[in-house]
Amino acid sequence: MSPEHANATAYRATAEAFRSGDRKALAALIDTDVVWHIPLVGEVRGRDRLILWLEALLAQGFWLPEHDVFGNDDHVCALSVMGLKGVGGDWQTQVVSIFHFRDGRQAERWLYPDDLGAWKQIVAS
């Protein structure tokens, strides 16, 4: 078995920094000019704005395990389950995320949730 590509490893480190609330590690793994394309939310531009959005999501009970992650010199694909365990209920959906990576950091992300109804509950909370 071949070792995992460095960008896939960087994604895993970013996801773990997010889950643990390690803002410093998260900032080091995301490009300053990052753009995330998020269904039902729109674009989130800039590392500081993205980190604030992620912290708010995490505070609401958001969770994220990866099913698989693979990458090359330019892209990473993450297959995940994303969910929210909150006061109003529990929701989850499978999500495919495609990333552009630049110099080992996330530069752009597109999220494709399987269940838009659940996704709406997750991002609207």
Number of strands: 7
Overall body shape: globular
Parts with pLDDT < 50 across at least 5 consecutive residues: none
Strand content: 35-45%
Helical content band: 25-40%
Order of helices and strands: HHEEHEEEEEH
Q: How big is the Rg?
A: 14 Å
Q: What can you tell me about this protein's structure?
A:
The chain is an alpha+beta fold. It has one domain: Roll (Nuclear Transport Factor 2, Chain: A). It contains 4 helices and 7 strands. Strands 1, 2, 3, 4, 5, 6 and 7 form a 7-stranded mixed β-sheet that branches. Helix 1 packs antiparallel against helix 2. It starts with 5 loop residues before the first helix and ends with a helix. The relative contact order is 0.22. The mean pLDDT is 94.
Could you give a short description of this structure?
By secondary structure, the chain is an alpha+beta fold. Helices cover 35% and strands 45% of the residues.
Give structural attributes:
single chain, 125 residues, Nuclear Transport Factor 2, Chain: A
Topology, element by element:
Layout: H1 6-20, H2 23-29, E1 30-38, E2 42-45, H3 47-59, E3 62-63, E4 66-71, E5 75-86, E6 89-102, E7 105-113, H4 116-124
Parallel strand pairs: 1-7
Antiparallel strand pairs: 1-2, 3-5, 4-5, 5-6, 6-7
Helix pairs in contact: 1-2
